[in-house]
Design goal:
Layout: H1 7-20, H2 23-35, H3 41-48, H4 53-73, H5 79-85, H6 88-96, H7 100-106, H8 114-130, H9 134-152
Amino acid sequence: METKPTHEQAQLHLQVYDLRREARLRQARDWFFKNYFVENLDDAMRLAAPGTEGGAFVGMVLGYWEQACALLNSGLLNEELFFQTSGEFFGIWERCKAIVPYAREKFAYKLYLAEMEKAVQRYETWIEKRSPGHIATMREFIKQMRAQGTKAA
């Protein structure tokens, strides 16, 4: 169900976007996409252990998108507008989804990245109706990036 964004939703959407442009978060997002290829918690701890710059970057990126998706899931952001303009969260989820069940179990926190997961599930349905094949193409692209990233390491 597509609904026109309210003025308040549009304002919040712009604020969320503006936060994404913050210099340190841009640096963290750049690092994340160049370096964060994980398949298990050991990979995650090796690349981004707590207390390291990588750990700080991963925390910033995941925290930003989890919060943005929480705003979306609560109805404060307009879903159509968010999905039209904010596909990055899908790429972030694809990079970390393999470790989510393990992190939820290890830290006894079933809500770990649950907001992003819920938003991604809806996004996949939304985008496939509008651009069939996009999800499969993006997953293949991410797989190729992973292969290039591991060769460079």
